[in-house]
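Retro notes - structure team

What went well: the batch runner handled both jobs without manual restarts.
What didn't: labels got mixed up in the shared folder, which is why I'm recording both outputs here explicitly, each with its sequence directly above its tokens.

Job 1
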Amino acid sequence: MKVKKVMTSDVGVCRLEDDLTKIFDVMRQKDCGVVPVVNGENVLAGIITDRDVCLFLAARDKKIAGVKAGEIIGGETICCEPDDKIETALKKMRKHQLKRLPVIGKSGEIVGILSVSDVLRKVKKDRNLKKRAYKTLEGIFEPRPIVLHEIGAQTIETSDGE
């Protein structure tokens, strides 16, 4: 089964220059906890989760006003493509402990979001795929050691030594 058969395609996005109010509006309108962030060419620049926003604000003791999406998104964004096999996407999720993957087209544009929940809802009759989805959930929620990296005067918290 391919990602495009399972992904959510009605995805709300924001731009790098959008503020938190816009991000919160997208999350509320789409009833989701993740918002893809695109650049001026509508190419995926990163994603913002509800958790990212909370940690960003708490770590920097910032107020909501004036915070832009571009300030919150991190480094590399793990993605998949619509024609990828579900099994391949689930491996990425498990490896990187991600509950959701942005689905991008050939030019980098966002075409959907694939979540473990999407997979579980669609694969009821496929025992093998259901088993892989549950294995992915186990991998996502498996505790990993927290490693602190010091950068200048800041300390950055990451998982799995990355």
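Job 2
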Amino acid sequence: MSGFPSQAELIKKYDVPTPRYTSYPTVPHWNNRLFSSAKWIDAVKRAFCESNDAKGISLYLHLPFCESLCTYCACNKRITKNHGVELKYIRSLLKEWTLYLRIFGRKPLVRELHLGGGTPTFFSPENLKWLVSYLLEEAVVHDENEFSFEGHPNNTTAEHLATLHSLGFRRVSFGVQDLDPKVQQTINRIQPFEKLREATEHSRRIGYKSVSFDLIYGLPFQTTATIEHTFRQVLTLRPDRVSFYSYAHVPWVSPGQRGYGDKDLPSDVQKRELYETGRTLLKERGYEDIGMDHFALPHDALYIAQAGGSLHRNFMGYTTTHTELLIGLGASAISDAKYAYAQNLKKVEEYSAAIDSGTTAVFKGHVQTEEDIQFRKYILGIACQGRIPIRDVAAINDSVLMETLKEMCAEGILATDSEAYVVTDPGRAFIRNVCGAFDRNLRIKEQQGGQSVFSKSI
């Protein structure tokens, strides 16, 4: 990058609050005033009719329960050791699914199914089997389905893995975060490496085709030495995918993060060094950089999808399937019907009460405009393929955007070929910022000032 600004200079400029772009517009920028339950149902029907017969639909089940609080976590969760909550919550999920089945009017073709959390393996194998079996009873499973779940290495048993495998699950993602004892103690996630190894070995023996690890950089008391030690341990297990996320320090959203202060966190430059340390080790061991925190071995479906131009991104993150309808079931779950977004009530009790009353649990949403749909396409192209056609940029006719892209080219973040603006290899560190250049809602909010609800991009 000779002649380009230094990494430190770029970090100072671009380490600003920026969305992760699992949707566009992003949730804080939804226009709820123009949204209604009737418009949501119409959007669901339209997207279902357009996609069900060929592509199928996606399902995301939010299982929010955890036995203990991991203080770094900013997700919507319910902390309890009372496993008596499982059956009641499953009944609510299935009632909500029945409501959507009525909206569809015929059996859906399920292409993608993901269990997220919280901790899905908080639920017993028996209850997970009941939930998934009942869910799929009134559906047709796509021949090229992708069923996956998130597991905690401490409580994901061989029985969990075998039960879900028998139901069609072939990918599991284990939350590792960090293996350093001091870091684990600070974030209240004590997780021995032996537990991770045991869960990984069980997964492979049972027949899972893709085992993924989630790690985080920027956590309190992390150093390049601790990150290197963590990676050298986890890479001995040769995960098929690695997600290496930037820690989002948002104590105004997640009060548990107030247990440590800014002095305990790495600086912006140090945080970038943590990422580069992990990325270098991954690249040395044959992992390909997918973009926006994700890495995969060349045999994995995620890399194959990117190489083939079919990689997609939605509320579940990067995915190898591109459906037009994603239904989120459960408290706080978000749905994407192509023409509209919707989110369920966040508190478990309020969510269950709404479902019991015979209505959807949706409490806010957004109806897509033609401009929204077009700009979503641009942002997805950058996030998934690292490029956007020059003709598309020219058609936008936005002088501010053109100037921003020109600056990014001068800084070595972007380059151009005969057809497109392309994110460079060093520029991958700033891919959220490149996406943000096309986010007109973000630009307006920045001009208005005020505290951002987004985590920093780097």
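One thing worth noting from job 2: The first strand starts at residue 57 and ends at 63.
We'll revisit the folder naming next retro.
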